[in-house]
Amino acid sequence: MPDSTVPTPTDRTTAPAPTAVDRTTAPSRRAVTRAAAVTGLAALFGAAATGTASATGRVTRLGPRTLDVSLPSAALGRNAPVRLILPSSFHTQPARTYPVLYLLHGAHDDYTSWTRETDIEAFTAGRELIVAMPDAGPTGIPTAWRSGPDYERFQVGEVPALLARDYRASGVRVVAGVSTGGYGAMAHAARHPGTFAAAASYSGILDTTAPGVPTLMDAIVARENLAPLSLWGNPILNVLTWRDFNPRSRAAGLRGTALYVSSGSGVVGGVGDWLPEALESALWPSAHAFTDTLALLRVPVTTHFYAGGGHAWAYWKREFATSWPMLAGALGVPA
Questions:
Q1: What is the DSSP string of 195-258?
Q2: Average pLDDT, rounded, for the chain
Q3: Across the strands, what pairs with 266?
Q4: How far is CA 125 from CA 42, 184, 322, in A?
């Protein structure tokens, strides 16, 4: 069941630019089954969805403001879903355009995760914006695969075109994501300068060539039974491709974009389920390497590096709430 509120952060220690912080190691992503996604969706809306066909694919209405669009995608070679939350005034102000908040999911999850795990629909009620939650495939790595689909073009090109054409989206966009979606938020903003007014990463993979990270990326691919090296090829033989898609290597492209980066140090060997904490610690050095590079480039960033924590929604919901004033400011809506 989704939480009823977005928690208010209680241990925030943000800074306008990265500073020296304690380093450990950490993250990955929580596996969520598709059956759980369906169950969570049914519990969230409490009613059967209705579907209609349109020129841009099938539209399934899930609630007064929430709908799923099955978008025909040349980049993916198939129809792919994007979940939308429309503003409350969408039908009463037909001449109005709206900024867009893009929310990206993590690995082994799907485009339903933000509505399943958070109260994003209630949170945005009365705020005049569109929320778009596009699919990133089973790995949640929204990039142009060496052997396969181009999720970057889908998310950065095709989905915005749909929203501008059919849902009166303005050119104002911000992007935020968890885990591999955090990678996507920073990679999209860095590789397409000026496309997003702000970008936020919560426990994201922000230096894909950091020690241990290529192995982690390969493990994400392998877990979905996809071909080895199908992401960006061999991290040594194809190092230029790996660098090209690496947020840290493309950090100069983030100049002028409002940025928020959060990550926990994780803990290993604690009581209970240790995996989320171990995974969080695995990405801690990657996040620091990224923000250190931003500091060298004199690109401002707000950081929240916190002790402990896990690779889980309990922390990501809090971090979204913490970053919301920055995102709202970039969107031009009240915080």
A1: S-SEEEEES----TTSTTHHHHHHHHHHHTTPPTTTTTS-TTTTHHHHHHT-TTTTGGGGTTSE
A2: 85
A3: 308
A4: 20, 26, 18
Residues 128 and 80: their CA atoms lie apart, in Å, by: 26
Q: Please count the other Cβ atoms lying within 10 Å of the Cβ belonging to residue 60.
A: 15
Q: Which residue has the tokens 């889908």?
A: 154
β-pair partners for 132? 84, 102
Which two tokens mark 262? 């959060």
- Please give the Cα distance from 139 to 9 (Å, whole number): 29
Question: Which of 9, 3, 8, 1 is closest to 264 using CA atoms?
Answer: 9
Could you tell me which residues come within 8 angstroms of residue 269 by beta carbon, excluding any fewer than 6 positions away?
Answer: none
Tokens of 246: 């690496």
Q: Three-state DSSP class for 308? A: strand
308 or 112, which is more confident: 112
At 16, list the tokens.
Answer: 């306008």
Q: Are 286 and 216 in contact (CB under 8 A)?
A: no
Burial (0-12, 13-18, 19+ Cβ within 10 Å), 310: buried
Evaluated on CA atoms 190, 195, 198, 200, the torsion sign reads negative
- For 72-89, write each residue's pLDDT tens digit: 999 999 999 999 999 999
- The residues facing 83 across adjacent strands are 68, 133
CA distances from 110 to 131, 159, 205, 232, 287 (A): 15, 16, 17, 21, 23
